Every structure is written in C-alpha cells, then in structure tokens.
From TrEMBL, chains A, B:
Residues 11-134 form the CRISPR-associated protein Cas6-like N-terminal domain. The keyword GTP-binding does not apply. GO terms for biological process: defense response to virus. Residues 146-262 form the CRISPR-associated protein Cas6 C-terminal domain. InterPro entries: CRISPR-assoc_Cas6-like_N, CRISPR-assoc_Cas6_C, CRISPR-assoc_prot_Cas6, CRISPR-assoc_prot_Cas6_N_sf. Pfam families: CRISPR_Cas6, CRISPR_Cas6_N. Signal peptide: none annotated. GO terms for molecular function: endonuclease activity; hydrolase activity, acting on ester bonds. It comes from Herpetosiphon aurantiacus (strain ATCC 23779 / DSM 785 / 114-95). Keywords: Antiviral defense, Endonuclease, Hydrolase, Nuclease. This is CRISPR-associated protein Cas6. CDD domains: Cas6_III-like.
Length: 274, 274
C-alpha cells in the first residue's frame, strides 16, 4: 500500500456545457487552463511554477479522441500528471471546494465533473511513489512502450543553426529523457546518464508514424509502439524497467506540458506479423 | 531515349497451373528459381554468379500480395532486377526460346507467362542506365522512399558477439547502402562514402512498421514510407536524388536477393496528418 503518493496522474473529466467544435490540438490551451487552475488554487505556487526551470514537474495532455465535435454533456478527458505531490493537493482542494465549476478551453465551455486517479477509470490515471516504482520493477530482456501522443526530442542545431528534432524513439533518447526527469524530481538519482549511455538498447519491433501536433507552434512527433531489446546485467535492466514504469508519470521528450510525449509501458508480446 | 539499358527491373508473370497455397514468404525459393533459370540459360555465367562476392548484381523479390491461396490461372508476380545487362540477355533469351515453360516454386507449379519491363505493366518494372539516372536527377530538399518489403541493415556485432540488425531507415544507412551498390556495379563511382557521411540526412516524416520475413531464416525488417530532409549543396543533393532514383534497381540493405529491401522513390507530399 502506498503510504503517501508522490506521483499522481489524474484524468479530469470535463463535460461540454453546449455543443462545441474542438480545435485540432488543444495542448497549449489545456496548458493555459492548468496554469489558470493552479493560479486559482495557490497564487504563490503558480508564480513559482511559471518561473520554473526547463523541466517542469507536471505534464498536461488532452487525451486522444476520435471526435472533434462534442455534444452537450459529452466528455472531454484532460490528463495531468504531477511529479510533485505538493502541486496536486492545492489543485485537488480547489476542485473539492467548488465542484461542477465551469472551465473554458479555447472557445468551448466545460464543467469539471470529476478528477480520476485510478486505473479503473482510465489507463492514464494512477498514483505511485518513487520508491515503489523502484521496488516493483523487474529486470527483463525486453520493454515495450506505447507513445499515445506525438513525441519528439530536441537535439542540437543543424548547419544552418536550426533546431534539430529527433523523430525516432531510439533507446538512448527515450531512456535518457526518462532518467533526466527522474533525477530532476526524485529524492535520489536512479542512475547517471553515463551509466545508461553504456547500455545497448536496441529497437526490435515497432509500428510508428509521424504526426503533426498543432500547438501554438506546429510540431512533428512520432506515435505508436516500440519494443526494445535490453542489454546489461540484472541491475541495469531493472533500472531501465523502473524508468519504463515511471514513463506514465514522467512523459518523454519535448513539450510534455502541451500534449506531447504521453507514454506508457505495455506488455511485450511476440506477435509474428507476417 | 535509352540506347542501351544497363539496369533492368523486370516482373515475371507466373500463373498457377493448379490451385495452390503459397507459403508465407517465398523469397528464398524465388531466389533458388532465379539461379535455376540462370543455370539453364548460361551454365558458365551461373557458376560465376554463385561464386560472386557479397554484393550481388541482382535482386529477387516476390511482389507483396494479399492472398496466400492462388486459384488455377491466377498470377504470381516475381520481380527481378539486373544490375548488369549481361545477366539479363541470356535470361530473357531462354524465355523467348521456350515460352509458356513450367516453373516450380516450393510445392507450387507455375507457367512463365510473360516478362514485363515497363512501368505500364508494373510500377516495379523499368529500364535505365547509370548515366541517364545521373542526367535526370534533380537536386531537391526532400526525398521520400517507399520500402515495400521488409528491409534491414547488417550492423556490427553486439557485446555477446551476435549480429546486430538495424531496423531504422536512418539516412546514412539508406544512402550508404545505395552508394555501395552503385559504386560496385556502375562504371564510375558516384561519390565516396565519406562524402555522404558528411551530409546531414534527417528523417522528417514516416509511417513504418517492422515485419518478419520468413526466408530460410526468419529476419525482421521495416516497411513503409519515409521522407528525408536533405542537407548539402546542389551537387550533393543531386547525388542523393540520383541514388534515390536508382533504388528501384539497386534495392537497399540485406538479403535483397531473397525478397528484402524492395524500395522506390515516391513523390514527396506534405500531408498534414492530424
């Protein structure tokens, strides 16, 4: 049993108060809404968040859905992961104090109907702690990840000085990104970047495609499923498994506060695609 | 007009002489059939081919098709690309001398109905010459390739000494593979590997998945479509365009004589997948 959750992934159930046409991507609007809610719940904290360093202790993601047209009363699920429980409590409290409050996302109005934090309600919800992630991880030969929203990595700059964007989920980019977030927010680092760098994490199977995310700026990312064949001893492979399990909370790559990099570990099957 | 084709991609139209169940992958059987046909057309040449070095001057590919069950009279298209015209002529002659000859592929019997070498008959057929590929190539900012059968690259060996297989169509693997084949068979090299190595060939958009090829051994590969953003001056980008155009004949990666690495350049669109 978790004495005290430190990592909280919650799914906000927003219901449309009128028929509304959603824009293509709501990531940046969802992020604005999140900051607005934080502002309301704890102005001082919100100010600190705004000034926070590059790696933010939260992710915000409108969950992928088919329909763009919502009818009155239909649900729009918004997912927020908190990497610091101290952020979650004031946020949740505001909601408890003012249930059914109205929220605005772009030109659409919603009621905040519920906040779910359990897997029963959504595969994207859950609570955990850094230590229990470590305790529960098992060393394994293969890890599979599901990238559910466009994901990309900021690499260096090209010859013309333009930002290079990594659109391949190579093992190093993926696990270094997870490690960076882990080490930024967990009480103790899980490993050093150099330790991971030594490991040979080979892409083994995948089904992937690039997709454009329309946030404030357009940003290409990749989506889909990837399996990695792991190298290293049991201890090293357990570190990788811990990071993969933590991906649900941490997110991967760039712009995870605007809808990118929504990822979770999935069971590794060995289908013979033919 | 082509005075003398040097590169010939032909599609053999085989028709089933009875209802037959195709095996999952026919690549190695198709290759055996090809060698058998060569043996018949020119025994001395066939012997040389058999002893040929690693990079073979031909590719053999059963064209991807939906059905595994063929009815009597149904067509099974087999694609052979010759990187040396001297191989094609005796091969074609044998066919001309004995039209409608029976051929065996595994446990299935076929009639060799026709040999097509024009785009009108199949997008995988065509003739060209090394020089006309150079003459017709245009420098461009972006190149798209369609990998129509599983494709993979043999990389080095891993810690355990096991063969590593590259399952990502990164720009260097793709264009170095093309260059290696070009330089092996064309009268003059197109560029040096080092020249290509200096170029920044970024993956920009893609839709890809891994698939198992069941040849004599199983081999995973990737299939799908990829667009590359090209770096370099006009001359360098023209070299890349030439190689992309030549991919139809050259094939890419490992086991192109057993059905892998069937590739062609496709027009680059800028769809906004969203």
């Amino acid at each position: 049993m978790l004495a005290q959750p430190e990592l909280i992934a919650c799914v906000l159930e927003l219901t449309a108060t009128h028929g509304t046409q959603l824009e293509r991507t709501q990531g940046h609007r969802a992020h604005a809404l999140f900051l607005h809610l934080m502002q309301e719940s704890d102005p001082v904290l919100a100010e600190q968040l705004h000034a926070a360093s590059q790696t933010k202790p939260w992710t915000v993601t409108p969950l992928p859905q088919q329909a763009r047209r919502l009818h009155n009363g239909e649900t729009y699920p918004l997912r927020i992961a908190f990497l610091q429980a101290s952020l979650y409590w004031p946020f949740a409290q505001t909601f408890l104090q003012r249930p059914n409050r109205q929220l605005r996302l772009g030109s659409s109005n919603f009621n905040l109907q519920a906040i779910h934090t359990t897997k029963q309600h959504s595969p994207w919800a859950g609570v955990s702690s850094w230590q229990s992630l470590i305790d529960q991880a098992q060393p394994t030969d293969e890890i599979s990840l599901w990238f559910a929203t466009p994901t990309c990595f900021k690499l260096g700059r090209d010859r013309q000085g333009k930002q290079r964007v990594g659109l391949i989920p190579d093992g190093q980019s993926v696990f270094q990104s997870l490690l960076r977030r882990w080490n930024a927010f967990a009480p103790t680092p899980l490993a050093s970047p150099e330790q991971i760098e030594q490991l040979d994490i080979q892409i083994k199977r995948y089904q992937l495609r690039t997709e454009m995310l329309h946030a404030q700026d357009k940003q290409l990312g990749f989506m889909g499923k990837v399996s990695y064949k792991l190298d290293g001893d049991a201890h090293e492979r357990r570190i990788l498994a811990t990071l993969a399990d933590a991906a649900l909370y941490l997110g991967i790559g760039a712009k995870t506060t605007q809808g990118m990099g929504l990822v979770q570990r999935i069971s590794t099957q060995q289908p013979e695609q033919a």
